[in-house]
Amino acid sequence: MRGRSGRQGDPGESRFYLSLQDELMRRFNSALVERFLSAAGLPDDAPIESKMVSNAIRSAQTQVEAQNFEIRKNVLKYDDVMNRQREVIYGERRLVLEGEDISKQVQTFLADTLVAYVNAETAEGFGEDWDLDRLWQALKLIYPIGFTPEELVAKVGSRAAIDADYLANEILEDATAAYEKRQSELGENVLRELERKVLLSVLDRKWREHLYEMDYLQEGIGLRAMAQRDPLVEYQREGYELFSAMMDGIKEELASLVFNVQVTVEGDGSEVKAAGISEKPTDTAALQYTAADESGVSTKGEISRNAQCPCGSGKKFKRCHGAA
Questions:
Q1: Which of 35, 112, 146, 158 shows a CA-CA span of 20 to 30 A to 214?
Q2: Under the GO molecular function aspect, what terms does this record hold (predicted)?
C-alpha cells in the first residue's frame, strides 16, 4: 500500500499493511484471494507479500484517488454557483456600508417592480379584458398611486384605447412624482439613510432565506441523475431561478418599504429609525412579481416550484402541495 509524503504527493518510505476485508480490497473481489490463500494453508496473521497483490492495491488506490479528485472538483463547481451569487449580494451590501447614494438604484428597483406588475396583468388579451382594479390593488401595496382606473380610462377615451406601454408610462410618471413627494416630506438626507437601512435589512434577510433554499436544493439534486439529467446543470439552472426570484423579491420589498415604512428622526436628524423593516411583510400583492416573463407572455397550467402555492398557505408550491 502506498503512503504519501506530507501533501506533496511523493511516494513515502513507510510500509502499510491492510486486511483483505478492507473496503479498498472488497472492490476487487478479495473473496477470491481469500479462498486461494485458505487453500494454500497460510495462517490468518501471516503477512502476504506478492507482486500481484501489491499491483491490485496500487490500482485500487489510483482509482480511489481519481474518484476523490473528481468529487472535490465537482464540489468546487457547485460552490462556484454560490460564489457568483455571493459576489452580487456582497457588492450590493458594500455600496450600502460605504455610504454610497443608492437613490438611483432604488428608483430602478421601483420601476422594475411596477413594470413587472403591469406586464403580469397585460400579458394576455386587450385593454378591455384587463382587470385594472386588481392591478391598482396590487400597486397600492407598493406606493400611493395618485389616480384611479376610471380617471385613466376617461383620459384616453375608452379601455380599448389603453395599451401596456402607455399604462406603464403613466404609472411610472406617477410613481416618480410620489417618490419626489416622499423625499420632500422626509428630507433628502433622511430618505437616503432610510433607503440604506431598508436595503441592508432586506438584503440580509432575503439572502439568509436564499441560503436555506440553496442547501435544500443541493441535498436532493443528485436524484436528477435518475432522470438522465446532469445534476450540476440542473443545480445551476434552478439556482439561477431561485436567485432571480430572490432579487425580484428584494426589489419589490424595498420599493414598498421606502414608501410605507414609518420613519422616526431623532436628535439633529443624524439618526433615522424605521419601524418594522427587519420583519417579514405579511401583505401579499394580488399580482405576483414573476407572473409574466420578459416577453410578456404568462403561462397557465403548470405551477412553478418556486411560486406561491394556490391553496393560500403562503408557502412555496414545492414545500406545500407540490411536495408529493
A1: 112
A2: ATP binding; metal ion binding
Number of other residues whose CB lies within 10 A of the CB of residue 66: 10
Q: Note the pLDDT tens digit of each residue in 65-89.
A: 887 777 777 788 888 889 999 999 9
Note if the pTM is more than 0.70. no
3-state DSSP assignment of residue 63 = helix
The set of cell numbers assigned to 70 is 473528481
Assigned C-alpha cell, 278: 427587519
Instruction: Name the CA dihedral angle for 82, 85, 90, 95, rounded to a multiple of 10 degrees.
Output: 180
Q: Which residues, 6+ apart, have CB-to-CB distance to 248 below 8 Å?
A: 116, 289, 290
Task: Report the topology of domain 80-288+305-319.
Answer: Helical scaffold and wing domains of SecA (1.10.3060)
pLDDT in tens, 152-194: 888 888 888 888 898 999 999 999 999 999 999 888 888 888 8
Q: What is the CA radius of gyration of the chain?
A: 30
Looking only at the bridges linking them, the beta strands covering 4-5 and 10-11 are antiparallel
The answer for residues whose C-beta is within 8 angstroms of residue 256's C-beta and 6 or more apart is: 141, 142, 143, 281
Question: What is the share, in percent, of the chain residues with pLDDT greater than 90?
Answer: 27
- Residue pair 111/218 in contact (Cβ under 8 Å)? The answer is no
Q: Indicate the domain borders of the chain.
A: 4-69, 80-288+305-319
Nearest alpha-carbon partner for 130 in 160, 157, 172, 166: 160
Please classify residue 241 by burial: count the beta carbons closer than 10 Å to its beta carbon, then call 0-12 exposed, 13-18 middle and 19+ buried.
middle
Residues 6 or more apart whose CB falls under 8 angstroms from that of 165 comprise none
Determine the pLDDT at residue 208.
93
